[in-house]
Each structure stands twice: as C-alpha cells, then as structure tokens.
UniProtKB/TrEMBL annotation:
Protein name: OsmC family peroxiredoxin
Alphabetical list of InterPro entries matching this protein: KH_dom-like_a/b, OsmC/Ohr_fam, OsmC/Ohrsf
The organism's taxonomic lineage, starting at the top: Archaea, Methanobacteriati, Methanobacteriota, Stenosarchaea group, Halobacteria
Superkingdom of source: Archaea
Amino acid sequence: MAKEVHSTSTEGYSTTNQIRDFETTIDATGEDAPDTLEALLAAYSSCYVPALRVAAEQRDVGDLGEISIDVTGELNDDDKLESVAFDVETEADVGDKADDVIERANELCKVHDALKESLGAEVNL
C-alpha cells in the first residue's frame, strides 16, 4: 500500500496539494497559508493524538477525554527545524503512567517514526 499526494505550484512559493478528495495549500513563506514547517508540526501533533489515545488504553489509563497539544518547533540559524516540543493536556489524569503512555505513543505515531534521522526521502527530479 502506498500513500499518494499530488502537489502543484503555478508560481511563487505556494503549493496546492491534492490528497484523495481533499485539497490543502501550503505556502513556504507563510503569507497565504501555513508554511511548510507549520504543516509538518500540525501533521505531527494530529498523528500524536490517536497514538496517545491508543497508548493510554494499552497502558491501562483508559479514555483520555479531550486532548490538547501546544506544539513548539525551534528553528536553527538556517531556519531549519532543530527540535520539537509537545505540551500535552488531557481531560483524564494520567498519573504516574505518563512516561509509559508517552513511550508507547512514540512507538505508535507514524509521523514520529518518519522523523527519525535514518529516514530520508527518495528524490527523483
């Protein structure tokens, strides 16, 4: 199985992406739409939410209820992503199982896995 996205840019730095029946725009400058790193951070946290829910169930915490994640992406001097931090709040009290839930969520989150240093894009130009 493969995931497919069709991306088109007619001018400038804005790109329209066709993802199945959905369309999203990303603007590298951030002027007309979220920029590329903001889109990556949003995808990361959006993937982390279900990973947290499954991890909490698997680690006997139960239903987390509402989950809120504030994401911070620190940039280096070249404006490249240097680090990512999640500030997570859940309706349910995770208690002393927080580390176990986080460890399992890291294992489950596909975007977290894709951000490992050893995985790079195969580029054909």
